[in-house]
Amino acid sequence: DIGQPFSWATRGGGMLFTAHGPVRADGSIETGAPEQQIALTFDNLAQTLRAAGSHSDKVLQVIVYLTDVNDVKLLDDIY
User: Fold this and answer.
1) Which H/E stretch holds residue 28?
2) Cα 16 from chain centre
3) H or E element in which residue 71 lies
């Protein structure tokens, strides 16, 4: 528990709902290079899926918000 005021994941209707960002294990936010932020966000998603007994091959949809459209190619490469 990193002291966030919300749940990183919840189940409902037989599905797992989750949202992530570039949050380090200590609760601080990664504000460095976009590569670091994107990789950490996807690592957090993978960790949550594992903890829930799931895997990325069961994910139905991923919505990503970027602050710089120029990072789309980078996101695609990491994803």
Assistant:
1) none
2) 13
3) none
Helices (H), the chain: 34-51, 72-78
Tokens of 41: 């966000």
- The pair of three-digit structure tokens given for residue 32, joined into one six-digit string: 């460095």
* 40 CB-near residues (< 8 Å, 6+ apart): 22, 23, 24, 30
Q: Which two tokens stand for residue 4?
A: 């966030």
pLDDT tens for each residue of 10-62: 899 999 999 999 999 888 999 999 999 999 999 999 999 999 999 999 999 99
Is residue 16 within 8 Å of residue 54, measured between CB atoms? yes
pTM: 0.85
CA 35 – CA 48 distance, rounded (Å):
20
User: Which residue type sits at 9?
Assistant: A
